[in-house]
């Protein structure tokens, strides 16, 4: 059985010699064939090494790109979280503004002879915006002036109409 394998190897060797020579019938001595064969395999090895080096370079480049993309992804995730927080704050502000607007509309459309005072952003020694329906406009002034105007309006209304009043205070965090 081993002799059959050896014969097959010799036949393959003879076949390769004939293929390299370009003519199956042409005889090539073993030394010349071996030299050509080694040279061919050496060239194939050099090509394979070059291709391997190119692939290693490409893999390294892709790894660097992946790391950069992961860093960019982390940065974008942090930015996304920050934007989500800003959106939530804006939504809260929009709801607050909507609530304030509805109260103001209700006050302006009210047929009752009652005073509605809505101080906004009340902080000591800072400007305050508030709405007084008897004046029908937004007024900005110091806190003390704002409360004086509200109290004066309330007192006048109570005196004139002998009615109760509602005081809505909207404090914003």
TrEMBL record:
Listed GO MF terms: DNA-binding transcription factor activity
The keyword Transport is assigned to this record: no
Origin superkingdom: Eukaryota
Residues annotated as domain BZIP: 24-83
Family matches, as InterPro entries: bZIP
Residue ranges the record marks as coiled coil: 34-93
Keyword set includes Coiled coil: yes
CDD domains per record: bZIP (cd14686)
Keywords per UniProt: Coiled coil
Pfam short name (any one): bZIP_2
Protein name as annotated: 13295_t:CDS:1
Organism of origin: Ambispora leptoticha
Lineage: Eukaryota, Fungi, Fungi incertae sedis, Mucoromycota, Glomeromycotina
């Amino acid at each position: 059985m081993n002799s059959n394998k050896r014969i097959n190897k010799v036949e393959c060797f003879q076949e390769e010699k004939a293929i390299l020579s370009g003519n199956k019938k042409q005889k090539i001595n073993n030394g010349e064939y071996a030299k050509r064969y080694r040279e061919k395999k050496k060239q194939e090895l050099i090509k394979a090494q070059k291709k391997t080096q190119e692939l290693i370079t490409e893999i390294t480049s892709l790894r660097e790109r992946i790391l950069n993309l992961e860093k960019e992804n982390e940065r974008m995730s942090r930015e996304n979280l920050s934007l989500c927080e800003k959106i939530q704050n804006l939504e809260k502000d929009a709801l607050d503004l909507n609530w304030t607007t509805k109260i103001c509309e209700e006050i302006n459309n009210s047929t009752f002879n009652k005073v509605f005072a809505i101080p906004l952003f009340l902080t000591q020694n800072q400007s305050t915006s508030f709405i007084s329906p008897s004046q029908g406009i937004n007024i900005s002034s110091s806190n003390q002036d704002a409360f004086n105007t509200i109290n004066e309006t309330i007192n006048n209304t109570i005196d004139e109409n002998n009615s109760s009043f509602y005081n809505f205070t909207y404090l914003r965090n």
